[in-house]
# Entry
Amino acid sequence: MAATSRPNTDIDYDGMSEPVLQTVNGRRKRRVVENNGRYLAKIQRYSGENVENAIACNHNRLMCTAANLTAIDLAYFKKQLYTAKDKVAQDAILLSHMDIMSVKRRREVDEGTRQRQRDVTIKYTVLKEDKTRVPVCQASFLSIFSVKKDRVQGIARHWLQTGMARPEKRGGSRPNDDVTAKKEVIRGHIKSFDCRASHYARRGAPGRKYLPSDLSVAKMHRLFLEQNHLKVTYSLYWSIFMYDFNLAFGHPAKDLCSTCVKSRMEMNDPTLTDEQKREKILLYSLHRRRARQFYNLLNDVGDSFTVCFDVMENLVLPKSAIGQTYYSRQLYFYVFGVVRHHGRGESQSRHDIHLYTWLEYENSKDSNMIASALQHYFTAVAADNLSLCQCLRLFSDSCYGQNKNINVLSMLFALHSQLFPHLTINYFFPVRGHSFLPADRVFGRIEQHIRKQATILLPDEYASILHRHGTVHQYGRDWQCYDFKKEAAAFTTQKRSFKISDARVIQICGNRLDCKPSFSGDFTRHSVLRRGKRWLDFAPAPLPDVNCVKLVKKRDVMKLLHELGVPAAVQAFNEEVLSSAGDRDIGQDLEDE
# Structure
């Protein structure tokens, strides 16, 4: 048999491909025999229900004394046979009542007369409850046990040939060395592909991995036939793919890394020389290695307290299926997710997920809100855990306007100095385009739930969905915003010896800040604290609410609510969104129109 070779596929979603592994539970569940209708009918057939045994003769002589049997004896014979629920065991019981021997003498047959020649001679007896044997004729034996003549003859012939009871040969698998070898080759071919875990976790398909979107089982089968000179049917290949592997085919990715896409295009340039192509492949491999190193660090939890956080894609209000919604401005409902990560393969518990929510008319989406939410999480939610560990590890993307800035770093410095002086804080930023964090998996499950809702009019409806996935902290009730930007400007130097945008890893320990531009190598030490300032005195003031909704957006929202005809939602938004001074009551404007 030809050995399988790894297919040359240049398709890779996010640069984080991994080999295909055979699983115990495949994509499809194998048929449970016990639930099969034919199996249930067989059990019913050999259960003895609706079976009436009787005596088929009136013989009362030496060769058959069936006439002396009573109804009690018949009930005992039935119970004796049907204590076994399968045919093989019942055949063994029938065999114990039979004395089988070869035919010793055959009668002469006249010319022109045909007579079937028997192979076996059987003497029938039945064992009574008092352990005495009663000889019976064939007709009574068949009627007492309610069995057919062919079944009895088959049992006798098999015992005469082999000296043992007849086994069950109907149904079941037929082991074949050739087919078994083909199946192993097929499994090896499927394993030669690269797959990836989903960016968003699928609740309905745990553990499922995804092959490139332009593949299919039919294409994989054609590749197999081209690479292996074996006659393998599509149905055999499909069954192994479905029952032995938990694989599916992904959709084309929308958030690919630009460096990966550019490198793959350059490597496929036919005008490149061999030396130039090797150089491009080397640079691409180095980029992928850096990206994978981030995920290795993320999953190397150890004894640390590892936290991942990110901002979810803006949710809109009102959410509706009507056509006007697509062309109208809508309010934004913001969700900031903080997830404690326990390592590769660990499930995401609802208690490890904390979702901070606020609306566009309550405050803006900036670094002050992110720093305030993180401060609340570390001081009100995770304080007990942080007091028991020595290292806090943070993972997030490199969004400068939200989390990768001096405002969030100042919050971390103050947290370390004021509450957790024993703690070492390490902050990791991924390679651009490879920032798929555990928080994104939570957002994926939430989005799947939201897509099932045709209409969402009020923030409480979003909150009820979020409560199913984690602990929700509502702005203004559970947490508030502080002016970290203004306080950080007063405590940190304006001229710095490093650029935060170039940092890949930042470490906070004491008053110093160590950073390095790659995941490996040594830290360089820097100072960001102004002379004469102490992080112990860092105390940002509460920030007042800011309604960021413009008048034109308010008008569009109210028009949508009027189109939907929901008076309660119109009144709620009129009180909340239109509360800023100087704006005319848009509800009245709509009535005037």
Observations:
- Residues 36 and 213 are 35 Å apart (CA to CA).
- The longest helix spans residues 274-299.
- The radius of gyration is 39 Å.
